[in-house]
Amino acid sequence: MNEQGADIKQRLQLAVKKGNKREQQKLWHQYSQQQGFSNEWIIAARLGEPAYTEEQVHMVACLFGR
């Protein structure tokens, strides 16, 4: 992780501690852009859910022979 990413993570932890939802949202957006994550992946991660369904996993496994 680069220095800017570490700074964002530290600021995000502080915003979580303070309960500052607006700052959390802004920092999640910055971090996801920096890391190249899709919005769907970030939302799933924040909700604690997988970014894909079992059906999608099965389809990919069938396509690649696993």
> What are the segments in which pLDDT stays under 50 over at least 5 consecutive residues?
none
Q: What share of residues is helical?
A: over 70%
Share of residues in strands: under 5%
* Backbone CA Rg: 15 Å
> Largest sheet at a glance?
none
- What is the count of DSSP helices, taking H or I runs of 4+ residues? 4
The averaged pLDDT comes out at 79
- The arrangement of helices and strands along the chain is HHHH
Number of β-strand runs:
0
Distance between the termini: 32 Å
Shape assignment: elongated
Sheet/helix structural class: mainly alpha
Question: What does this entry look like structurally?
Answer:
This protein is 76% helix and 0% strand. The model has no long low-confidence stretch (mean pLDDT 79). The longest helix has 16 residues, at 3-18. The chain has helices at 3-18, 21-35, 39-47, 54-63. It has 4 helices and no strands. Helix 1 (3-18) runs antiparallel to helix 2 (21-35). It is mainly alpha-helical and 66 residues long.
